[in-house]
Design brief:
Layout: E1 4-8, E2 15-19, E3 22-29, E4 32-34, E5 49-51, E6 55-62, E7 74-87, E8 91-95, H1 106-122, E9 126-130, E10 134-147, H2 153-166, E11 171-174, E12 179-187, E13 190-191, E14 200-208, H3 244-263
Antiparallel strand pairs: 1-2, 1-11, 3-6, 4-5, 6-14, 7-10, 8-9, 11-12, 12-14, 13-14
Length: about 260
Amino acid sequence: MATILYWTDPDSGLTESVEFDVVPSQLHEDILEITSHPVEQSAAMVDHAREQPTRLMLEGFVSSVPNRRIDTDAADAQVEMVVSGFTDPGTQSIQLDVASSSPRTLSGLISAGITAVGDAIGGGPRGTFRGVARRARQTLFGSFYQQRTARDRVRDVYEKLQGAQVKRALITAQTPLREHFDMMLERLPAQQDEEDGTGATFEIDLRRIRVADTETVQSPEPAEKRGALAKSGGSKNAKADPNAGAKNDAANKSLLAMGLDAAF
């Protein structure tokens, strides 16, 4: 299974994806933060350990050469080449026709017979020779996988990853080990060196975001209507008596009269 990152673009609503040519390494990290304080016996352990967001760190390489497994804008192209050169005849072995001794004498007849028997068994004497190389023209046919558009594969991947990071897109990471959901691109370093040539190595860090579901519910009717204007109950302070002065004069006269009567 290949390692693929895909997400929904927040602006266009289209699904974007990135697949690397080679993924030399990937690290899946799950962390549980555990309390350092003493825990009471038989206490619920879930209250003393907190799960941290999952992290995924991977290294992916993208080449400038089209990939049959990924690219749809590339196809095989047939090529015919005429090559000039020399043909090498190599070393050849041929049978030699060697004249036998004259059969005029008895010894010649015996020698001829022995030679005939030897030729019949071993095929006769043979010799080797090497020919002279000759100039020749050869036609060679081949095919290669060629990209039909002017798209830059490396730049295309880099711009897609940058867009996902800038737009805070939630990424799904599909790897041979597991699938990660609701991931956000935290770090995006891209490196090019002499060994990579025109390709690039991406060492990216992804971290999971906790996504909570929200729900709208109907609130209960209040016991009293909210926002209603309260009726004025009037001022609680006592109002001034307009006849207070006359009342005070009458009281003073009454006290004076009582004092005179007492004197007499």
